[in-house]
Amino acid sequence: MATLSDFNGYQPTWCPGCGDWGIGIALKMALVQLNYSPDNVVVVFGIGCSGNMNDFLNAYAIHSLHGRAIPNAIGVKIANHRLKTIAVVGDGDCYGEGTNHLIHAIRGNHDITVIVHHNSVYGLTTGQVAPTAPKGMKSKSTPSGIIDQPLNPLTLSLTQGATFIGQGFAGDTPHLIELLKKGLQHEGFSLINILQPCVTFNKINTYQYYRERGYRLPKDYDPSNYHLALKKSLELDDGKYPLGVIYQVKKPTFTNQLTQLKERPLVENEERRKEIFFQLLNTFK
Amino acid sequence: MMTFTWKIGGEAGFGINAAGSIFSKFVARSGYYAFDYIEYPSLIRGGHNALEVVIADEEIGTLREKIDFLVCLNAETYQKHSVRLHEKSLILYDQAEFQPNGTGIKITLPFKTILSDLGGDLVMKNTVALGASVALLGGEIKILLEILKEQFAKKGERVIQFNQKFAQAGYEYILNHYPTLIHRILTYKKNNNKVVISGNDAFSLGVVLADCRFYSAYPMTPSSSVLHTLASWQEKIGMVVRHAEDEISVINHAIGSSFAGVRSAVGTSGGGFALMVESVSFAGIAEIPLVIFLAQRPGPATGMPTWTEQGDLLFAIFAGHGEFPKIVLAPSDHLEMLRLAAEAFNLADIYQTPVIVLSDMFLSESHRTIDEEKIRKLAHQYQIDRGKLIKNLERTEKIKPFLRYQITEDGISPCLLPGTDGFFYQANSYEHLEDSHTTEEALERKKQVEKRNRKIQTYLKNHFQTPKVYGNLEHASMVFVSWGSNKEAILAAIRDLEEKNNLKTALIHFSYLYPLDKNVLLSLFDKNKQYLLVENNSLSQFGNLLSMTLGIEIERKILRYDGRPITSYFIIDELKKNGDIK
Fold first, then answer.
1. What is the pLDDT of residues B398-450, one digit of tens each?
2. Given CB atoms, is A88 within the 8 Å cutoff of chain B?
3. What is the Cα–Cα distance from B266 to B216, expressed in whole angstroms?
4. pLDDT tens sequence across B174-221
5. Whole-angstrom Cα distance, residue B104 to residue A64?
6. Does the bond joining A150 to the residue before it have cis omega, within 30 degrees of 0?
7. Nearest CA among A69, A26, A24, A22 for reference residue A45
8. Interchain CB contact of A60 with B (< 8 Å)
9. What is the DSSP pairing of strand B194-198 with strand B367-371?
């Protein structure tokens, strides 16, 4: 069985106090507790401070391009659907450059877990606003304050048909570990939006900010209730942050609906026999 | 070689393409060879469609100047194409619609009356025309009826019989009214098995032969039929074909599945490829095997979507930021398309890098008759080579990193199948160490750049193929230099020049376009010879590549960039204009 130290790669280079530390440790803990090991997990990292986790977490991994982690992860899953496949991305990465991929991954209910570091800024490029930045936020690219209103990832994914939506807080690791475990165990597409203070560039959405406005969903909250989930998701627009499993429903995954994958993963198929080629050739006579 | 060109034209939506593919099959089953070429606008209804089939008694892969038989399903067909008719050309038309006023033998056929008498729809004109064509060319109607039966098999017996009735009616009308005009062009002769495939079919068959199991694409003319064909086969052959949301997603799907160990390919045309380019570079540094099928059409931007051009050569060769190895192949005909498609997957695996198979609308959408035996032979010879991919590796007790980017002499590092017990590594878009962790160290950067670059030398040594030489370079007074789908047209021009002008010419033809081996190629060129570059673009892109790589400038150029393919008669016209021949 793998231990936490098996997952430990390089010592992280995140800023002291960065929310990514909490996310990094929570993800490793969740993987250990679910009995995964670095050799049976594929993690696809986007580009950004979040994606830099590539060197801090041991696993079969792809350090992808900015915005493209999701289609890489879908490709991995289609090729070998027995591998647990995770995308670790940022909110600029996933809600900006790669939003299109997010929406379509949801439509297909691809069995991947997308973990979004939601810090409302582009940390790695020195703090420009992300699509989740509150209206009016000033940054180097928006010196007079951002005109656009923030994107709401929870309502977006819910209304497009995501089968698992969770929200966590980087400052509450024990809760985040449990949430990640639920997301990783979900069969189908799971989005875990993690509120992550950027201590260097975001002076608005601080630990204090989220502690005051975030709250754990009550024990009797019913995540299968779509309308309730929609109501909870909309709270983001009012600066309130429900934490936990916002929504979960069971639906067949993309790979479960491909008859050619019924018996074994694509990668494990026997080499194609030449007879099939000759049969197809016959159809051109 | 006997050749005879049959051409059918009509309004878009009147089954011109379907009629053409049926006719090409008919030609093959009657014991002859066909080559067809479609002209159509980017529309579903309205506008003019035309398709020509060159019939020959040997294999043929190009168009001929004159139309010997023009089937006019409307007046516009005659107006547009009568310029290519000659005195003995047959013209099939309906005098209720128009009267041809020029040269040729006029054969009127009451399409409308036949259709309304038998309760048919106007869109079935094509079927009547097929029956009439078979009669006029001395073919066997039962072969046509059999093909129609197969064509409509899924729609049931009633639809089959309904269509056969109209073919039969067209056939009988000719026998009854024009018995003296029957030509013995397609008289049945016993023959070996033949297949009729398009360039895209050939690519699709190459995908199957190579055991590629993942193909993703976003529809784009002229590559789309590969997506359709493979999608229709996917369950039978155990492959996944995915129509993703955009081309960026398409290529990143394939990068993911290739990383996971499955042979993967994408298909597109210029605009879609432009969207993929950042990820081509990603596959280059992460060293992910990937086959890219790039079927060119005239650009820039949306350009002329349904026509042909070789305008993306330099774009393909230089696609991707940064420096990394890439292999570009351009098949010269349908059979080579099949061979190079399958070969591309071996090269991608061996060199762990993107391989581009360059086609164009002319090659992708034209059908050609090929003796089945040739393809069977090629298929039997093909062996899958997955290069340095390791599927099993003994683990140590402790999980340890695998040296994915190990420095090697040939530049190629061993690759381990992800999911293998006891190891881990990453495919990294950042510069990396041998163990795949990110690095910005100067020395490590240099080592990895040089390692990747060494793959180019290894390829040139082990897999690069020199261009094919046709004709005798020593005796030729003029040597054509070209690449990709122009080959057959140039070979036809060479034959015509020898027969009609007593002019000896030769061809140096490239299919392995990039990288090029300067040392090997220089010996092919002689300062005292006259070389003539032939390309289907306006800026002589291959000429530029040659001058960049070899330092050789080919002054004389035959360039075509009107959206139409290079033909032998286009080349000969250009030579006439220049005063080379009379």
1. 999 999 999 999 999 999 999 999 999 999 999 999 999 999 999 999 999 99
2. no
3. 5
4. 999 999 999 999 999 988 899 999 999 999 999 999 999 999 999 999
5. 64
6. no
7. A69
8. yes
9. antiparallel
